[in-house]
TrEMBL record:
Keywords: Amino-acid biosynthesis, Arginine biosynthesis, ATP-binding, Ligase, Nucleotide-binding. Signal peptide: none annotated. Pfam families: MGS. It is an enzyme of class 6 (ligase). SUPFAM superfamilies: Glutathione synthetase ATP-binding domain-like, Methylglyoxal synthase-like. CDD domains: MGS_CPS_II. The keyword Ligase applies. This is carbamoyl-phosphate synthase (glutamine-hydrolyzing). Its EC number is 6.3.5.5. The keyword ATP-binding applies. InterPro entries: MGS-like_dom (IPR011607), MGS-like_dom_sf (IPR036914), MGS_CPS_CarB (IPR033937). Gene3D superfamilies: ATP-grasp fold, B domain, Methylglyoxal synthase-like domain. Residues 71-215 form the MGS-like domain.
Amino acid sequence: MLPATGDGTDLPEDAPIAVKEAVLPFHRFRTVEGHGVDTVLSPEMKSTGEVMGLDAEFGTAFAKSQAAAYGSLPTEGTVFVSLANRDKRSAVFPIKRLADLGFRVLATAGTAQVLRRNGVAAEVVGKFSEGPGNVVERILAGEVDMVVNTPFGSPGNSGPRLDGYEIRTAAVGAGIPCITTVQGMAAAVQGVEALLRGDIGVRSLQEIHADLTGR
Protein backbone atom coordinates (compact mmCIF):
# COMPACT_ATOMS: atom_id res chain seq x y z
CA MET A 1 0.00 0.00 0.00
CA LEU A 2 2.29 2.73 -1.27
CA PRO A 3 1.49 6.36 -0.43
CA ALA A 4 0.45 8.74 -3.19
CA THR A 5 3.75 10.62 -2.96
CA GLY A 6 7.36 9.59 -2.44
CA ASP A 7 9.19 6.44 -3.44
CA GLY A 8 7.81 4.08 -0.80
CA THR A 9 10.96 3.98 1.32
CA ASP A 10 9.43 5.96 4.19
CA LEU A 11 6.14 4.32 5.12
CA PRO A 12 3.91 5.15 8.11
CA GLU A 13 4.52 2.99 11.17
CA ASP A 14 0.97 1.61 10.98
CA ALA A 15 1.19 0.70 7.29
CA PRO A 16 -0.05 -2.86 6.71
CA ILE A 17 2.32 -5.74 5.99
CA ALA A 18 1.79 -7.98 2.97
CA VAL A 19 2.98 -11.59 2.73
CA LYS A 20 2.87 -13.21 -0.71
CA GLU A 21 2.74 -17.00 -0.99
CA ALA A 22 3.17 -19.10 -4.11
CA VAL A 23 0.50 -21.75 -4.62
CA LEU A 24 2.09 -25.08 -5.48
CA PRO A 25 -0.46 -27.92 -5.38
CA PHE A 26 2.02 -30.71 -4.76
CA HIS A 27 -0.75 -33.23 -4.14
CA ARG A 28 -1.67 -33.00 -7.83
CA PHE A 29 1.82 -33.75 -9.12
CA ARG A 30 3.51 -37.10 -9.67
CA THR A 31 6.89 -38.25 -10.99
CA VAL A 32 7.02 -40.30 -14.18
CA GLU A 33 7.11 -43.40 -11.96
CA GLY A 34 3.90 -42.33 -10.23
CA HIS A 35 5.47 -41.21 -6.94
CA GLY A 36 4.71 -37.96 -5.13
CA VAL A 37 7.00 -35.02 -5.84
CA ASP A 38 9.35 -33.46 -3.31
CA THR A 39 8.12 -30.18 -1.80
CA VAL A 40 11.65 -28.73 -1.69
CA LEU A 41 11.70 -26.16 -4.46
CA SER A 42 14.25 -26.28 -7.25
CA PRO A 43 14.98 -24.16 -10.35
CA GLU A 44 12.27 -25.95 -12.33
CA MET A 45 9.48 -25.07 -9.86
CA LYS A 46 6.25 -23.84 -11.43
CA SER A 47 3.78 -21.84 -9.37
CA THR A 48 0.12 -22.22 -10.32
CA GLY A 49 -0.83 -18.95 -8.69
CA GLU A 50 -0.16 -16.61 -5.82
CA VAL A 51 -2.05 -15.33 -2.80
CA MET A 52 -1.42 -12.46 -0.42
CA GLY A 53 -2.10 -12.02 3.27
CA LEU A 54 -2.46 -8.40 4.41
CA ASP A 55 -2.63 -7.21 8.00
CA ALA A 56 -1.13 -4.86 10.54
CA GLU A 57 1.39 -7.43 11.84
CA PHE A 58 3.62 -9.95 10.14
CA GLY A 59 2.38 -13.02 12.02
CA THR A 60 -1.24 -12.35 11.15
CA ALA A 61 -0.41 -11.60 7.52
CA PHE A 62 1.61 -14.82 7.28
CA ALA A 63 -1.20 -16.89 8.80
CA LYS A 64 -3.62 -15.45 6.25
CA SER A 65 -1.29 -16.26 3.36
CA GLN A 66 -0.97 -19.88 4.48
CA ALA A 67 -4.71 -20.28 4.97
CA ALA A 68 -5.34 -18.98 1.46
CA ALA A 69 -2.69 -21.17 -0.17
CA TYR A 70 -2.62 -24.47 1.73
CA GLY A 71 -4.95 -24.40 4.72
CA SER A 72 -4.77 -22.94 8.20
CA LEU A 73 -1.80 -23.46 10.48
CA PRO A 74 -2.61 -25.69 13.49
CA THR A 75 -3.10 -24.09 16.90
CA GLU A 76 -2.65 -27.33 18.85
CA GLY A 77 -1.56 -30.92 18.42
CA THR A 78 1.73 -32.52 17.40
CA VAL A 79 4.65 -31.14 15.43
CA PHE A 80 7.31 -33.41 13.95
CA VAL A 81 10.82 -32.00 13.55
CA SER A 82 13.79 -33.34 11.58
CA LEU A 83 16.56 -30.89 10.85
CA ALA A 84 19.82 -30.77 8.95
CA ASN A 85 22.82 -30.30 11.27
CA ARG A 86 23.33 -26.73 10.05
CA ASP A 87 19.79 -25.81 11.18
CA LYS A 88 19.53 -27.52 14.57
CA ARG A 89 20.77 -24.68 16.79
CA SER A 90 18.85 -21.91 15.01
CA ALA A 91 15.58 -23.88 15.15
CA VAL A 92 15.65 -24.43 18.92
CA PHE A 93 13.88 -21.20 19.83
CA PRO A 94 10.88 -21.49 17.46
CA ILE A 95 10.40 -25.16 18.37
CA LYS A 96 10.60 -24.30 22.08
CA ARG A 97 7.97 -21.64 21.51
CA LEU A 98 5.63 -24.22 19.98
CA ALA A 99 6.24 -26.50 22.97
CA ASP A 100 5.45 -23.61 25.32
CA LEU A 101 2.19 -23.08 23.41
CA GLY A 102 1.21 -26.66 24.19
CA PHE A 103 2.36 -28.57 21.12
CA ARG A 104 3.71 -32.08 21.51
CA VAL A 105 7.10 -32.39 19.81
CA LEU A 106 8.23 -35.49 17.92
CA ALA A 107 11.73 -35.57 16.46
CA THR A 108 14.30 -37.84 14.91
CA ALA A 109 17.09 -38.93 17.28
CA GLY A 110 19.70 -36.31 16.34
CA THR A 111 17.23 -33.42 16.38
CA ALA A 112 15.65 -34.61 19.64
CA GLN A 113 19.07 -34.69 21.30
CA VAL A 114 19.72 -31.03 20.47
CA LEU A 115 16.22 -29.99 21.53
CA ARG A 116 16.48 -31.81 24.87
CA ARG A 117 19.86 -30.26 25.60
CA ASN A 118 18.18 -26.87 25.20
CA GLY A 119 15.22 -27.59 27.44
CA VAL A 120 12.66 -28.76 24.87
CA ALA A 121 10.92 -32.04 25.63
CA ALA A 122 10.92 -34.17 22.48
CA GLU A 123 9.80 -37.73 21.82
CA VAL A 124 12.07 -39.71 19.51
CA VAL A 125 10.43 -41.28 16.47
CA GLY A 126 12.15 -43.35 13.78
CA LYS A 127 12.92 -42.25 10.25
CA PHE A 128 11.31 -43.88 7.24
CA SER A 129 14.43 -46.00 6.70
CA GLU A 130 14.28 -47.32 10.27
CA GLY A 131 11.35 -49.64 9.72
CA PRO A 132 7.85 -50.08 11.20
CA GLY A 133 6.43 -47.41 13.51
CA ASN A 134 8.38 -44.66 11.74
CA VAL A 135 7.31 -41.07 11.37
CA VAL A 136 5.93 -41.53 7.84
CA GLU A 137 3.45 -44.09 9.14
CA ARG A 138 2.43 -41.75 11.96
CA ILE A 139 1.95 -38.82 9.59
CA LEU A 140 -0.25 -40.88 7.26
CA ALA A 141 -2.21 -42.16 10.28
CA GLY A 142 -3.16 -38.57 11.18
CA GLU A 143 -1.02 -38.40 14.33
CA VAL A 144 0.97 -35.32 13.22
CA ASP A 145 -0.42 -31.82 12.63
CA MET A 146 2.65 -30.05 11.22
CA VAL A 147 6.02 -31.14 9.80
CA VAL A 148 9.30 -29.24 9.94
CA ASN A 149 11.95 -30.89 7.78
CA THR A 150 14.95 -29.03 6.42
CA PRO A 151 16.67 -30.94 3.60
CA PHE A 152 20.30 -32.00 3.71
CA GLY A 153 22.70 -34.13 1.74
CA SER A 154 23.15 -34.26 -1.99
CA PRO A 155 20.33 -35.52 -4.24
CA GLY A 156 20.15 -39.30 -4.34
CA ASN A 157 18.12 -42.34 -3.49
CA SER A 158 19.38 -43.31 -0.06
CA GLY A 159 20.15 -42.01 3.41
CA PRO A 160 18.89 -38.72 4.85
CA ARG A 161 17.87 -37.32 1.47
CA LEU A 162 15.46 -40.20 0.86
CA ASP A 163 14.14 -40.02 4.44
CA GLY A 164 13.39 -36.33 3.97
CA TYR A 165 11.63 -36.96 0.68
CA GLU A 166 9.39 -39.61 2.24
CA ILE A 167 8.56 -37.34 5.19
CA ARG A 168 7.66 -34.37 3.00
CA THR A 169 5.56 -36.35 0.52
CA ALA A 170 3.72 -37.98 3.46
CA ALA A 171 2.89 -34.51 4.79
CA VAL A 172 1.44 -33.58 1.39
CA GLY A 173 -0.57 -36.79 1.34
CA ALA A 174 -1.93 -36.08 4.82
CA GLY A 175 -2.76 -32.46 3.93
CA ILE A 176 -0.77 -30.91 6.77
CA PRO A 177 1.69 -27.97 6.70
CA CYS A 178 5.24 -28.93 5.72
CA ILE A 179 7.92 -26.33 6.45
CA THR A 180 11.38 -26.74 4.91
CA THR A 181 13.38 -23.75 6.21
CA VAL A 182 14.16 -22.33 9.66
CA GLN A 183 12.96 -18.94 8.47
CA GLY A 184 9.65 -20.48 7.47
CA MET A 185 9.43 -22.15 10.87
CA ALA A 186 9.92 -18.82 12.67
CA ALA A 187 7.24 -17.22 10.49
CA ALA A 188 4.86 -20.11 11.13
CA VAL A 189 5.30 -19.72 14.90
CA GLN A 190 4.31 -16.06 14.63
CA GLY A 191 1.31 -17.14 12.57
CA VAL A 192 0.25 -19.71 15.18
CA GLU A 193 0.54 -17.08 17.91
CA ALA A 194 -1.66 -14.70 15.90
CA LEU A 195 -4.28 -17.43 15.45
CA LEU A 196 -4.24 -18.23 19.17
CA ARG A 197 -4.73 -14.56 20.00
CA GLY A 198 -7.73 -14.44 17.67
CA ASP A 199 -6.16 -11.64 15.65
CA ILE A 200 -7.37 -12.89 12.26
CA GLY A 201 -9.93 -10.55 10.77
CA VAL A 202 -11.04 -9.32 7.37
CA ARG A 203 -10.92 -5.78 6.05
CA SER A 204 -11.41 -4.60 2.52
CA LEU A 205 -8.59 -2.96 0.59
CA GLN A 206 -10.83 0.10 0.30
CA GLU A 207 -10.98 0.42 4.09
CA ILE A 208 -7.23 0.09 4.47
CA HIS A 209 -6.61 2.58 1.67
CA ALA A 210 -9.01 5.06 3.25
CA ASP A 211 -7.16 4.80 6.57
CA LEU A 212 -3.82 5.47 4.91
CA THR A 213 -4.97 8.38 2.79
CA GLY A 214 -7.29 9.97 5.36
CA ARG A 215 -4.62 11.22 7.72
